[in-house]
Design brief:
The complex is a heterotrimer of chains A (263), B (427) and C (487). Chain A is of the alpha/beta class and 263 residues long. Chain A is built from nine helices and twelve strands. Chain A has a single domain, classed as Rossmann fold. Chain A is 38% helix and 28% strand. A six-stranded mixed beta sheet of chain A has the order 6-9-10-3-11-12, with helices on both faces. Chain A has a four-stranded antiparallel beta sheet with strand order 2-1-4-5. Chain A is globular and about 60 Å long. Chain B is α/β, with parallel strands linked by helices and 427 residues long. Helix content of chain B is 20%, strand content 39%. In chain B, strands 1, 4, 5, 7, 8, 10, 12, 14, 16, 18 and 20 form an eleven-stranded mixed beta sheet that branches. Chain B has a ten-stranded mixed beta sheet with strand order 3-2-6-9-11-13-15-17-19-21, covered by helices on one side. Chain B is globular. The N and C termini of chain B lie far apart (49 Å). Chain C is of the alpha/beta class. Chain C has one domain. In chain C, the strands form three sheets. In chain C, strands 5, 6, 8, 10, 11, 13, 15, 16, 18, 20 and 22 form an eleven-stranded mixed beta sheet that branches. In chain C, strand 3 and strand 4 form a beta hairpin. Chain C is globular, with a radius of gyration of 22 Å. Classes of the chains: A alpha/beta (263), B alpha/beta (427), C alpha/beta (487). Chains in contact: A-C, B-C. Chains B and C meet through strand 20 and strand 21 of B and strand 22 and strand 23 of C. Strand 20 of chain B pairs antiparallel with strand 22 of chain C, so a sheet runs across the interface.
């Protein structure tokens, strides 16, 4: 009994037969996925399989319509929840393509974000000094150039700097559920190491990570507990970390073939 | 003067031709009365349409209505783009010359004015425009083309308006093209000829693109230094159409092209390119409007000018995006190369946007040849004159390279670029 | 003279949105409605003006009368019913001006309180920010602070009516030298009836030690405001001048037709900043100020510089084109603008940069924001004249649309008559980017705040050009003006 209660408390996300369309075209065709606190999940799949759609729809991006099924987060259906409310409740999306915000200073943006989330948790806004200290700590973690926080958000940042900025925010905002959308794309080995270290340092028994990726590479650095293979809007196979290695070796064609042959 | 000549005429003169059909005679009459009421746009104060162009020299000239003339085909070939593989249709001083024209026999129907009633005049509004009214009032001949989807797209329709320049005359050609559903065609419309004699060509072209039609259109203006050329283009696009139009102008005494494209369909694309090359005391005025009335369409307006001598070029480009035209994508650009101390360019690239979900941009530049580029070439051993010539050609080539028909491309390069001066730098 | 009736403060929802919309009770000195020669004489007489000033006014009035209303500019992209110029009060002075306060201590305490409400407590300003303030209430300058420090530096900063008395030679030399009385319909009207405004003269080599500021306010119900400002920066001098404007909420429209002339001599620099927050009218488009203003600077001397920065959020209709005539060789002109319109506001604003001298340089950065049912037009002219060798201009105009019932328009006029010119114009129009909004929302920031952050970022380059206090105020104005535009 005690153990069951414990498991129930650990339940973070429950995606139930989720169908999602963009402009009347069905992209996700009945996804089932369950994520508990303390777990690292990886969603792998070929281009166009719906991986990014899943990450976007979990974080509430406008333009995606859920035609049926549900997303339960911390026991609540969040199908209709606004993206900022989800963020304040601890869902964090590290973007595949972080946007540039001309004229919006990174410092101001981060403080607004931290304050909004603190307010949701019944905490007071941070003073300028306190925030500066906090920022300093997290900035150092990802070895981010201090000048960047004075500049406009992501404007003129290199690809690597943008991704580092995402991971810095992950660390700073300390969410409960982190979605990493193709975070490894466009990173060189050093940047990949720094970014992975950031994620590894972040993960704990009180949060969970979902990594969306095409390649296995990032999973050498961040070890997943579960790997799910997404093909054409369906999770066709799930397994442990070894599945990723097998995929890397045999390619997505292998999965497709094994499905069509009924295995 | 033209003004006085017109006031000496009466309604009788305009509508006397009993061989013309009733609809044509009443159209001419209406236009004539409009013209008498509104006159020509001589006053420029507060007149945004004619802000930088004075039409007084035209209106104060002595012109008489042109008459049909005969011409030697070799003269045409010298002055106009030509290929024996094309369908060539030749107008001389506003009148079609069937002897030297070869008119296609299938996939296209061609008729002279006055033969049947049709939608002529539907796209041009002359109620507030003296020259447009002048064209309609004195319609003498024209070409009505209907392009079927069976039309052989490998054939070019080459329509030549030759100005003999032998008399002090004004002529009023009219071209009306209907691109039927799913049709595709390449059309060249050129205004060539002229001589030392002043003359006025005052043309109107209407093009209607029905759904899924495509027209690749070239418009050339290459007359003499003494001619006046005022032209109107009125185009309407339905759903899923593509309209590519490239215009090439060598300035006349006064040249003006007023082009209006109504994007009246979804998923359509309007692509307007232009190159104006003016020299001596020429004056060229492009007045272009793209009117987006339906959603999900796009337009690209890209003009370039090369100015020398004491010439003057005017570019007035307006993109209007109406409230209904959400998801419009439009870019507009006008770039000018000024090669002499006394040339002048006036550019007005305007945007009027009434829909929010749009992406529109425009840009304009003016200046002379980039000195750094010249220096780079010189450091590679190319002399100043050759370097500047290369750069000027390169500047023009951005427009000319879109021309796919070889004979046409050669003609443009020969007529438009060879006479260009090279610019002398003051280093 | 009858005491001005107390009109109670209007209440309602709009009260909070336009927090500057209160009135105060001060005895006013009103001219009868309408305009004729006698009114012009009345105004001149009120000011105790010398004959030459009256003659100049009368010349302007004669021209204005001769040309008539039909000569008023009709090319702007704004739409309003014809103004009845005989239904306007052309002179309204707070009565206490008759007693001519000698110093701030003598100023009617009620007036001081009024300015406190405006957010420019003169005493505070004096102590804290070191800004010299000249407040113009309904056309009459009521108080000028910080005179001692200015006197020491040799800077003249006073009401123009005072300058006419005290410095007639300077006024005669420069008044109308940049904007002649015949310039345009509204400038002609202003020349005939201007009641007050600020006058600044900075002597050679002097860097004005503090920011100069004028606060304009229209208070009377039917009054028009016709102030006239003249700033002269003599050789090698520098001055930064700020201008703020508010007006109470009115059901009817009020006319504001000001003229500002700037003259920068050799090596001199003038920086002119405006925060324009005249009453914009209510949500249905009732009331609001017609802001028809002629502002022009002459960068007359070599190496001189004139820089205009404006944040325009108010007025029912804005018609203004702060311009620079770049006469001196190597002179510089700048125009930085944010124009925000909401509800039924209309703005047709921009600049003219006329390059006359060699190596002249101009920069234009204009940001337009349209919301509600408002229409916003950028109209700008860049002329490079035949002798302006090596002139350079860069223009960037960006427009944002919020909602599908507003409009954003860009109308540049580019006239190049010299081949050595380098000029480039770029413009974009779009709505606030959805991806940017989502990115901010994903970090927990709500839609309205996200929208504000993006638009504030869009305008940041312009705010940066403002003096610090003004930049903060501009940001606030933007926030208030954007309220309720999303969601």
């Amino acid at each position: 009994m005690g153990k069951i209660m414990n498991d129930r408390n650990k339940k973070l996300l429950n995606v139930n037969d989720l169908h999602v369309s963009i402009d009347d075209k069905e992209i996700l065709k009945g996804i089932n996925l369950s994520v508990n606190l303390g777990e690292v999940h990886a969603i792998m799949g070929p281009n166009g399989s719906g991986k990014s759609t899943l990450a976007n729809v979990l974080s509430g991006r406008p333009g995606y319509s859920i035609t049926s099924g549900s997303i339960e987060y911390l026991g609540e259906n969040i199908n209709e929840e606004l993206p900022e409310i989800r963020a304040r409740k601890g869902i964090f999306l590290a973007f595949q393509y972080p946007v540039e915000l001309p004229g919006v200073r990174t410092w101001q943006f981060l403080k607004s974000s931290v304050d909004a989330i603190r307010k949701e948790n019944g905490e007071k806004e941070l003073g300028v000094k306190e925030f500066d200290q906090l920022l300093e700590v997290h900035r150092n973690k990802v070895e981010m150039n201090p000048d960047l926080v004075k500049r406009s958000v992501n404007e003129g940042f290199s690809g690597g700097e943008k991704k580092r900025n995402e991971i810095m925010q992950l660390s700073l905002l300390n969410p409960t559920f982190a979605l990493l959308d193709e975070t490894d794309s466009g990173l060189d080995i050093d940047a990949l190491r720094i970014v992975s270290n950031g994620v590894n340092e972040f993960k704990s028994e009180s949060n969970a990570v979902l990594i969306v990726t095409h390649y296995q590479r990032i999973l050498d650095y961040i070890k997943p507990d579960f790997v799910h293979v997404l093909v054409d809007g369906n999770i066709v196979k799930s397994g442990d970390g070894n599945l990723a290695l097998e995929l890397e070796e045999k390619g997505y064609e292998w999965i497709k073939e094994s499905i069509s042959s009924g295995n | 003067m033209l003004k006085e000549y017109l006031s000496s005429l009466d309604e009788q003169f305009v509508s006397q031709n009993q061989s013309e059909q009733e609809w044509l005679r009443s159209l001419k009459l209406e236009a004539f009365n409009t013209l008498r009421e509104i006159g020509f746009p001589v006053s420029r104060k507060g007149n945004e349409k004619w802000k930088y162009t004075s039409v007084s020299p035209i209106v104060n000239n002595v012109f008489l209505l042109s008459k049909p003339k005969d011409i030697n085909i070799d003269e045409i070939k010298k002055q106009a783009p030509w290929s024996d593989d094309w369908y060539n249709i030749v107008f001389v001083d506003g009148f079609i010359n069937k002897n030297i024209s070869n008119i296609p026999d299938s996939g296209i129907s061609v008729s002279s004015l006055g033969l049947s009633e049709n939608s002529i005049g539907e796209l041009i509004d002359f109620s507030d425009d003296g020259f447009a009214a002048l064209n309609s009032a004195f319609l003498s001949d024209g070409l009505i083309v209907s392009i079927e989807d069976s039309f052989d797209t490998s054939k070019v329709l080459n329509i030549i308006f030759y100005n003999s320049g032998t008399e002090l005359e004004f002529n009023n050609p009219r071209l009306h093209i209907t691109a039927e559903e799913n049709s595709s065609s390449v059309i060249i419309e050129s205004y060539v000829g002229g001589s030392n004699q002043n003359s006025l060509t005052n043309s109107v072209t209407e093009m209607e693109l029905k759904s899924s039609a495509k027209i690749t259109h070239y418009r050339l203006m290459s007359e003499s230094n003494n001619t006046y050329n005022v032209g109107y283009g009125r185009v309407r696009l339905s759903d899923d159409t593509e309209f590519y139009s490239s215009s090439f102008f060598r300035g006349a005494n006064i040249g003006r092209y007023d082009l209006n494209v109504l994007v009246d369909g979804e998923r359509s694309h309007c692509d307007l390119k232009g190159l104006y090359v003016t020299s001596d005391e020429q004056h060229m005025d492009n007045f272009i409007n793209i009117d987006h009335a339906k959603p999900n369409s796009s337009s690209n307006l890209f003009y370039k000018g090369i100015l020398s001598g004491k010439s003057k070029a005017v570019f007035g480009g307006t993109v209007l995006v109406r409230k209904e035209a959400q998801k419009t994508f439009s870019v507009q650009s006008d770039k000018n190369l000024i090669l002499s101390d006394q040339a002048e360019v006036d550019s007005k690239p305007a945007l009027f946007i009434y829909a929010d979900d749009v992406q529109c941009a425009h840009g304009a530049t003016a200046g002379n040849i980039d000195e750094d580029s010249v220096f780079y070439m010189r450091s590679r051993g190319i002399d100043l004159e050759a370097a500047s010539k290369l750069l000027i050609y390169g500047f023009a080539d951005e427009i000319i390279s879109f021309v796919e028909e070889t004979e046409l491309k050669n003609f443009i390069e020969q007529k438009f670029l060879e006479s260009l001066p090279s610019y002398k730098f003051e280093f | 003279m009858q005491k001005q009736k107390v009109i109670s403060r209007e209440t309602g929802v709009e009260d909070q949105q336009y927090k500057w919309g209160f009135e105060f009770d001060i005895e006013s000195d009103l001219a009868p409605k309408g305009l004729n020669k006698d009114i012009v004489k009345f105004i001149s007489n009120k000011k105790n003006e010398p004959q030459w000033m009256l003659d100049w006014r009368l010349k302007a009035f004669e021209l204005w009368e001769k040309e008539g209303v039909s000569s008023s500019p009709n090319w702007a992209n704004v739409d309003f019913p014809e103004i009845n110029f005989q239904d306007i009060v052309y002179y309204a002075a707070p009565k206490s001006q008759d007693d001519a306060p000698k110093s701030l201590d003598e100023v009617d305490p009620e007036l001081i309180e009024a300015f406190d409400k405006l957010g420019i407590p003169l005493e505070e300003q004096k102590k804290l920010s070191g800004v010299a303030v000249d407040a113009v209430l309904d056309s009459v300058s009521v108080a000028t602070t910080y005179q001692d420090m200015l006197k020491e530096a040799g800077v003249i900063f006073c009401p123009i009516s005072e300058a006419v008395q005290k410095y007639p030679e300077l006024v005669k030399k420069y008044l109308g030298s940049v904007v002649p009385y015949s310039d345009n319909f509204y400038a002609t009207l202003n020349s005939a009836v201007f009641s007050d405004g600020s006058f600044v003269y900075v002597p050679p080599g002097v860097r004005c030690p503090i920011e100069l500021m004028t606060y304009f306010r229209i208070n009377e119900v039917d009054s028009g405001q016709f102030e006239r400002t003249l700033i002269i920066a003599d050789e090698g001098s520098y001055v930064s001048y700020l201008e703020g404007c508010t007006a109470p909420m009115r059901k009817t429209h009020q006319l504001h037709a000001a003229v500002v002339e700037l003259v920068a001599l050799k090596d001199a620099e003038i920086k002119y900043s405006t925060l324009q927050n005249w009453y914009p009218g209510d949500k249905e488009g009732n009331g609001g100020v017609y802001n028809f203003v002629t502002k022009r600077g002459a960068a007359r001397g070599e190496n001189s510089k004139i820089s205009w920065t404006q944040v325009e959020t108010g007025s029912a209709i804005t018609w203004k084109y702060p311009s620079v005539i770049l006469q001196g060789d190597n002179s510089t002109g700048e125009f930085y603008s944010v124009a925000l319109v909401n509800n039924f506001q209309q703005a047709d604003t921009g600049t003219k940069m006329i390059h006359v001298g060699k190596n002249t340089k101009s920069t234009i950065i204009a940001k337009g924001i349209s919301a509600g049912k408002a229409q916003n037009t950028y109209r700008g002219q860049v002329s490079i004249l035949p002798n302006a060798h090596n002139a350079k201009n860069f223009t960037q105009c960006d427009s944002l649309l919020i909602g599908d019932e507003c409009g954003a328009h860009t109308v540049p006029y580019i006239e190049v008559r010299n081949p050595s010119a380098e000029m480039g114009h770029e413009a974009t129009t779009s709505k606030v980017n959805d991806d940017q909004l989502f990115y901010l929302q994903q970090r927990g920031i709500d839609l309205e705040e996200a929208n504000y952050m993006i638009i504030n970022g869009f305008c940041r380059g312009i705010f940066k050009e403002l003096p610090f206090e003004f930049a903060m105020e501009a940001s606030q104005l933007l926030r208030v003006s954007l309220e309720g535009t999303v969601g």
